[in-house]
Design a protein that fits this description.
Structural class: alpha+beta
Radius of gyration: 18 Å
Largest sheet: 6 strands, antiparallel
Strand content: 35-45%
Length: about 170
């Protein structure tokens, strides 16, 4: 696939954009893995504050080490899930002319392994399906896994849906 590399406004690195036909040809392929992201206590504490989920296994290192099942603090499952947005920004190809990618939800989501503080995670994406919903929208399905560096078991696996929205009814080439 040829594609065209552009700087994505929300990303720190360039992403490749494709025409509708080029992107259709990618269906069924692994499009890549994001860079590794550190899960430190500061990130976990910040997520705990925003979500008001202050369970000790997330925010109290001493108590989590003494009483918890993981030997220390662990990331919230939903923290790991929320990082998929950034991971996708840095990894998945874009459709030329898309003005918005809208989260449409998950058909399947499983939290498979706790992510311990100090771990690094990355998202790996397979472009599973592309469905035209209208002249202005395409529905994308990604098979997503979040890996924990140095571990065989995944942190999570999901089927993630997003909608590519165009400004006009004429999708670009």
């Amino acid at each position: 696939m040829a594609g065209r590399t552009v700087q994505h406004e929300a990303a720190d690195s360039a992403v490749t954009t494709y025409t509708v036909e080029e992107l259709r040809a990618l269906v069924g392929t692994k499009v890549g893995c994001s860079p590794w992201m550190l899960i430190d206590q500061k990130r976990i504490d910040g997520f705990a504050e925003v979500t008001e989920d202050r369970q000790f296994i997330h925010i109290d290192p001493e108590r989590a080490a003494a009483e918890g099942p993981f030997g220390g603090t662990v990331a919230h499952g939903f923290l790991t899930l929320s990082l998929l947005v950034r991971m996708a920004e840095l990894t998945v190809p874009r459709l030329n002319g898309t003005w918005a990618m809208v989260n449409f939800g998950f058909d399947k989501l499983r939290f498979l392994n706790a992510v311990q503080v100090g771990s690094r995670v990355r998202g790996c994406f397979t472009f599973a399906e592309m469905t035209e919903r209208s002249a202005e929208q395409f529905l994308f399905r990604y098979a997503v896994s979040v890996e924990i560096e140095g571990q065989d078991r995944l942190a999570l696996a999901a089927h993630w849906l997003s909608v590519a929205q165009f400004i006009s009814s004429d999708p670009p080439e």
